[in-house]
């Protein structure tokens, strides 16, 4: 019996565990004040990438069994600030169902008066309402997931409190501040996924990023139209689905990746040429793969 649902998840999980082992090592061994601060600064961008994988995991869990999934979610919680079931409630059964309706979207980019939020306003608003909105989705629609969300969040808080009891300074810079920073960076990045796309068509509702390095580090999250078309599809199959959908995606719905992949023109909009659009289309993904 295999432990993983998909073998492609083995190396990413090993990397997450390795980063967490380094976190624990710094927490337990750092004696100089600057070491935890430096570790916090160095980890902001990598833990932002890990947030993308936490997102994938809560769409389609990486392990076949509950216990390793819960243990992985504790690691993800300390690395990204998004605890077990939080992405599922806020994002999977919230945002994915409502993203075409800005009066309901849990990650809405419009103000109540219909105008577009700025990046900072959106990021702060979505970050501060993330857990209340997850709670509300669970209360209305998914009481079983809500119970697990509450239990796991309570466990995460108990573990965090224990870390502060052992060493409050190291716990602040190695765990708590990275949790807050990763949540903010993740929310800020999502601003560019759908902003100003007023449409009822899924093919016209998301921006896509084709940069190889970005998709390597985020598990193909740049193929965002494909992700919204089949949000339960494993991340490894998104490029194939994008190739099938590429003819229907407008040429202007592409962006540059953000820092550190692009330092000049970060998140800038792109318009693909006809040749580039043709190059995207390849052999269509099979129905069997889409159902996997």
UniProtKB/TrEMBL annotation:
Residue span, Fatty acid desaturase domain: 32-253
Keyword match Membrane: yes
Membrane-spanning intervals of the chain: 12-30, 148-166, 172-192
GO biological process, one term: lipid metabolic process
InterPro entries in UniProt: FA_desaturase_dom
Entry keywords, A to Z: Membrane, Transmembrane, Transmembrane helix
Superkingdom field: Bacteria
Protein name: Fatty acid desaturase
